[in-house]
């Protein structure tokens, strides 16, 4: 059986055979947030199904391809569709594309996601810049043999999200008159939305928003010494008075409505890198 490094090298070699420029920014586009691609000057697209050792996304709203090109004058690699632990992939599978990005030359990783709001100040459609996260409920992607070529055995996580990028994004949002919150994201496995009691518990633990992605990608990126920035679209409110249920369709709709704001921030942030 091939080792992780063998698989990574094979994947990277295949991608380079199809696209030979070096992307410096990687972007992971979450639920309903795929239209940033319209702002890109696309140079190549590769469906996940063609990439050796790559998982294939199974979630509605995720298109499933690598998109290479330019955004705001920078070479970028966008993942249209991400992988989730709840789809049945291992934490290592979820981490694999981030490792590939780094080996292709990516130095900065930008992430977006849909999240449930637990902060009383949040409304559906708001944006929250992630300043920190809690990942105690998600399986750590670094469990297992450490590949010293990728990073250290015990990576420091005191600054998972680049303070410099957060500062730049806050200024961009202010200049464009886009309201943003800053807060803590907690990653859970899903695929169920949380119970009311779970939302309350997670909020008491210090989280402002909760979602089923991102933290494993961030841990992987920091292990490989990439700079990370992430933003959540608040697509539903977990702590609420009314007696309603949350559906995936509502989440996608809220994400679509917030998309122009998110696209504006990401485009400017890429330019500032």
Explain how this protein is built.
By secondary structure, the chain is α/β, with parallel strands linked by helices. The chain has a single domain (4-272), classed as 3-Layer(aba) Sandwich (Rossmann fold). Helices cover 31% and strands 24% of the residues. Strand 3 (65-71) and strand 4 form a beta hairpin. Helix 2 (91-104) packs across helix 5 (215-223). The mean pLDDT is 92.
Condensed summary:
Pathway: Purine metabolism; purine nucleoside salvage. With 273 residues, the protein is of the alpha/beta class.
Number of strands: 9
- Poorly predicted ranges: none
Q: Quickly give the structural class.
A: alpha/beta
| Elements, N to C (H/E) | HEEEEHEEHEHEHEH
Taking strands numbered 1, 2, ... along the chain, how are they ordered across the largest sheet? 5-8-7-6-9
Topology summary:
Layout: H1 4-18, E1 25-29, E2 41-47, E3 65-71, E4 74-80, H2 91-104, E5 108-117, E6 127-134, H3 163-175, E7 180-187, H4 196-204, E8 209-211, H5 215-223, E9 227-237, H6 248-272
Parallel strand pairs: 1-4, 1-5, 5-9, 6-7, 7-8
Antiparallel strand pairs: 2-3, 3-4, 5-8, 6-9
Helix pairs in contact: 1-2, 2-5, 3-6
């Amino acid at each position: 059986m091939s080792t992780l490094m063998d698989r990574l090298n094979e994947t990277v070699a295949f991608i380079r055979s199809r696209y030979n420029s070096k992307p410096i920014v990687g972007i992971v586009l979450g639920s309903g947030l795929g239209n940033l691609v319209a702002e890109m000057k696309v140079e190549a697209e590769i469906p996940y199904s063609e990439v050796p050792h790559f998982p294939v996304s199974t979630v509605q709203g995720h298109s499933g391809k690598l998109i290479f090109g330019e955004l705001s004058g920078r070479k970028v690699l966008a993942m249209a569709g991400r992988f989730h632990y709840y789809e049945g992939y291992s934490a290592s599978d979820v981490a694999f594309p981030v490792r590939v990005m780094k080996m292709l030359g990516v130095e900065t990783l930008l992430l977006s996601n849909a999240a449930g709001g637990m902060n009383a100040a949040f409304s559906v459609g708001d944006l929250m810049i992630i300043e920190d996260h809690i990942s105690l409920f998600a399986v750590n992607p670094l469990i297992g043999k450490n590949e010293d070529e990728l990073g250290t055995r015990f990576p420091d996580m005191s600054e998972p999200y680049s303070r410099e990028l957060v500062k730049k994004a806050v200024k961009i949002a202010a200049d464009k008159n886009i309201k943003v919150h800053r807060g803590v994201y907690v990653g859970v496995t899903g695929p169920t939305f949380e119970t009311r009691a779970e939302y309350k518990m997670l909020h008491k633990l210090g989280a402002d928003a909760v979602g089923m992605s991102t933290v494993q990608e961030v841990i992987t990126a920091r292990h490989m010494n990439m700079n990370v920035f992430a933003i959540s679209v608040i697509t539903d409110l977990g702590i609420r008075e009314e007696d309603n249920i949350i559906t995936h369709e509502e989440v996608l709709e809220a994400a679509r409505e917030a998309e122009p704001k998110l696209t504006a921030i990401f485009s400017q942030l890429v330019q500032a890198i």
